[in-house]
Amino acid sequence: MPTKLIKANDQIANLVTNKYTAAKNFQLPLYNNFIEYYKLYRSVRDNTRQHYAGRAKLFVPYIYQTIETIMPRLVGGKPKIESIPREMTDIESASVMTKLTDYQWDMMNMKKKVKDWVKQGLLYGVGFLKLTWKYEGETGYDGPCAEVCDVFDIFVDPDATTLSDAKYIIHRVERNIAELKANPKYKIPDELSADVQKDQYKVLRDAVQGLSKPNDKDSKCVEVFEYWGKYDINGDGIEKECLICVANRKYVIRLDENPYEHKRKPFISFVDTQMPNEFWAIGEVEPLKNLQYELNDIRNQRMDNVTLILNRMWKVNKNGDVDEADLVSQAGGIVHVGDNNALEVIQTPDVTASSYNEETLVKADMQQASGVTDYTKGSSAGGKGNSALANETATGIMLLQEAGNARFKFKLDNLEDSLKEFGEQLNALNQQFIKKPMVIRIVGEEGTQWKQVSPKEIKGQFDIMVEAGSTQPMSKSVRRAEARELLMTLIPIAQVAGINLRYLIKYLLKTYDLADSEEIFIQAIPTTVPGPEQAMAAMAGAQGAAFGGLGAATSNVPQQRMGGSEIPTGEEIQQSQTGAY
Known about the structure:
Elements: H1 3-41, H2 62-75, E1 81-85, H3 91-107, H4 110-124, E2 126-135, E3 142-149, E4 154-156, E5 168-176, H5 177-182, H6 200-208, E6 221-231, E7 240-247, E8 251-257, E9 267-271, H7 289-310, E10 313-316, E11 343-346, H8 352-370, H9 394-433, E12 438-444, E13 447-453, E14 462-466, H10 476-490, H11 494-497, H12 501-510, H13 532-540, H14 550-554, H15 570-578
Antiparallel strand pairs: 1-14, 2-3, 2-9, 4-5, 5-6, 6-7, 7-8, 10-11, 12-13
């Protein structure tokens, strides 16, 4: 290799390594906090905070409960990521792109990856997902690849406030030398040898559970810095988005412009609570951290108080001829004394009653900080009067649930923003790399179907829309209740609006998991109903039943009008209301 080129590569390697060092030094305080957050989520005691000999060592897993309550409310369902056409000529292409996205979501196992991505965001404030294109030759995989990045492997420009305005992002990865050599995009020098430096924070994270990974002497991996960011690659003074890969912090093995036509850095972040003008957001653990320590202290102090009452201490006269081996609290125990004044019990006051009040206050603070109440968790905190917020009236519970739902909706909105970015990048990758027809699977109400997609069919300009709440789970009972409420609400206005009640009833039947909802209809049912008086009478008799009163509401409709979508004429409606039928 020419000396000039070697010198240039050395300069580039130093540039990337220096930027890595700058970003890492900036993030070190964050990493220290992340280790603490991890320990709190895993409910691991910090003995430096309570190290009294012989005392209780309980940990109340409140932070764990909070995160595990929020998780299913954010990622309980498969998101609906739709491509919206910008031009009328792109309508059909947008529909095909939506089906392709849905298929690739399953192929990339995104259901599991999104859970890891979101949990990382809830723990640390920010979660990272990397979306690239993977090509394994003519007979191998050729498609998008999503990876949840370890937060300790991502190094962001310290001046960045978002991923889009970051001048660079460095992803530290381990790569097998043989795989790098087999990839024509990399230029591997002969002197490159296996060498991976252990990250101290990953070591600390393992140590939380008492784990220590052994050194693999047979490892064939090297440490690679993937630098995604601005660089003057052509030496013309114009910086462009580039991909620079540096192995073992000194060998430049790849130097290219960003290989993706969208020129975005291939990372998508999920943030829990965004701070203005700051990249690193607030997670669920940060505001609860000190309250968790306080809750642990209160619980342990109460346990210590009970322990000292049951296992009392003694005041002993050293000249009183008392055998200290007898000073054991046990049923029927005997203490031999030579002098009645030689032994005296040290009384420990019972302060557990006040500790319950303190615990309630701490939990109330934690619930107000997180928005996750006992009722959100499906618990009343042990019965009436023991709730952390001490409000168990129906109105109070409803207000708590509404407040919690508003908080969840805000977090869900953040996730949908991230999924929108995911959809935009995925569409761009598909349009760039799909060069030949492919067959995708479509799963819908009509069962499993197969469709061939050609590159021409996915061309166009699209916007991405993530259906609001599409990732939120909804229990069958909630869906059923909402369907009943919708049906009863629309009955009074069905006559005027010409509403098809058959459709609403079929929708309600679906919530009962019936295989074929059509089989329940032994005769045609009306599309409209008579006036409000009869409808209200029907509703009055429908309390607590799915179809109660429906027959009364429709009994005056002529048989020849049942089963179709035709709306009765004005004369027929008037005759119906006056009893002419």
